[in-house]
Amino acid sequence: MNDLEKAEAIHKRMLNQFGISELIKLNVYKDLALALNARDYADLEENNIYINPLFSPASQSDLEINLPKGAKIITLDINSLKHLSSIESIAIILHEIGHALNPFEKGENGEFIADDYAIDRNYKAALLKSLVSCKKLWPSEFDKNITEKRINRLT
After folding, report:
1. How many domains does the chain contain in total?
2. What is the residue range of 92's domain?
3. At what angle do helices 124-137 and 145-154 cross, to 10 degrees?
């Protein structure tokens, strides 16, 4: 799969144009597209997984496609991603794709499987950095036992 085909494939998984432009500004969009391979894109399509970059605390967007029943939507908070480096943001998105591909894996095992999805795409160091950053930025969400277990597993 060449770079143009990857660009077309990631575009098909995105639910709003404004979100795409924001991910481009954050230097996330292109590298996310390149981080995935042909099998990854096939998995996203087969599992009806879409990405919807939005702004917190609330925003709206017009969908230009009809989503299939049972579609899985990964919602990205652009305002949160702005606090992280582009490589950390990509690692987080890859982690979330790992969750979407393994919806029945919960708890610690689910986190580790989702981490492995990012690791398998060479984002181990970025994932570790993102966990450390998120723990500092949002301690109420990330200063937890599971975060420590994930950090220890990555070091």
Report:
1. 1
2. 3-154
3. 150
